[in-house]
From TrEMBL:
Stretch list, region Disordered: 1-26
Short name of one Pfam family: DUF488-N3i
Alphabetical list of InterPro entries matching this protein: YeaO-like
Name used for this protein in its record: MarR family transcriptional regulator
Amino acid sequence: MPSSKATDAAPPAKASTARKRSTKPLEIHFKRAYDAPDPADGQRILADRLWPRGLAKIKAHIDFWAKDVTPSTPLRQWFHQHPEQFDEFRQRFLDELSALDADHNATLTELRKRLTEGPVTLLTAAHRLEDDEAHTHLHVLRDFLESR
């Protein structure tokens, strides 16, 4: 009786739908868009829905504008009216980011790709970015990117 090689072979590996996590931690920095570029910035990514007022595009040294992965206009406006409710803002923004992720948003995909290439500095026009107590959408975006 001839042996069947098909029964001796290991079953084919199942394709994994889970995202591969990088073993290297992401290097994400924050800076105001108006601050001068520095070689340590790595890629400079503007993470604001609106272009910073008074900042010339030619002098901005922006490598990528990730406006689609920022808080929606209604959420941004709500947060400006209720800055004391950061926890609520955080949850709403995380919900928006999760929905973008589920839809395989091209900007989110591009941002993740750039994060694998080395350090990234997320830029915003927000004031008080250096304040330890400051909470901005950049903090939420960073936490979202690091958790996936």
